[in-house]
Fold this sequence. Notes:
The chain is of the alpha+beta class. It has a single domain, classed as 2-Layer Sandwich (Alpha-Beta Plaits), CATH 3.30.70.1530. The protein has two helices and three strands, in the order E-H-E-E-H. The chain has helices at about 15-25, 60-70; strands at about 5-10, 30-35, 50-55. Strands 1-3-2 form a three-stranded antiparallel beta sheet, with helices on one face.
Amino acid sequence: MDETVAVTTVTDELEADVVCGLLRSAGIECGFRPTSAPDSAFGGVLAGRMQILVHASDLAAAREVLAAADSP
């Protein structure tokens, strides 16, 4: 079984659903979970942040998909 790794962190479950949908449309299995890591920019004030998880073997491809979606 392939290890899972965090590819990014998003603000809430709705955004996590959108990001995972994008990754799944590219053929990348994806999941998400709440993270207890504080948001450094806000000193942990924001709650509900979610880690986006992919298989370690898909990490590079997932980063490419997310980077392409971020570019204009």
